[in-house]
Amino acid sequence: MITAARIVATGLFVGYVPVAPATFGSLWAIALVLIVGTSGWMYWALGVILLLLSVVSSGKVAKASGREDPKEVVIDEVVALYLAYAHFPTDWKVLLGGFLLFRAYDIVKPFPARRLESLPGGWGIVADDLVAGGYTWLTLKLLTLLL
Question: If we measure between CA atoms, which residue out of 114, 117, 134, 135 comes closest to residue 125?
Fold first, then answer.
């Protein structure tokens, strides 16, 4: 059944792409930062809204599907990468670098990402991606300071 939670959790159905749904879902974050930028009240308001929607919608879809972290749920990648771009310029090098770093960290799941997957409901689905987003932000920050 198509519900509001499923529409949000799947990133407007991008999560149903048969190959690499999380990678395609992450592209929503780039679209959003190109629209609202990466700082200011609108950026942060949207970030909080996305975070809350991601926890609730991913938890509902997981429960309905009977799976802990359904592959079609991509809103967690969207919010984590979106927040990883905080206060960075929206030029193509930063967007591409952040995208590649985030996907790598999301796949590798550095500490404590894997542990956080055991959190209940939507928190377990979203928290590991927030860690990947945090590592992405830190790496981008270091690279911008060094280069």
Answer: 117
